[in-house]
Fold this protein.
Amino acid sequence: MGSIILRTLDRGEVTIGEPEWCLGHEGERVGYLADITHNGPATVLEFDGVELLSARISWAPFGELQPEPYPVASVDELGSLEPGRLRELAAATALYAGDLYRLANEAERLRGYRS
């Protein structure tokens, strides 16, 4: 873990630890110490140029509303998910993918009857 110096409204200039997975804070305007958030690169599910799901590791070490002692994944539209809940989401997504395959196969079968 490295460190970074950020300027905050409530604490002035602060030096904090920065995890190696953090994308950095260059050009970031920090309000308060509690607003400092480390974000990792996004893992994106995209289809035909449309982003369907995006997840990243996000950690607000000084967060007041939801202080987290370790990073959790944050999935857009769902908020922060503990690792176990993220695995549940992955399993549900895999099951849904199976449903999509079955639907495509059924549509193809029905088209065969119409040809």
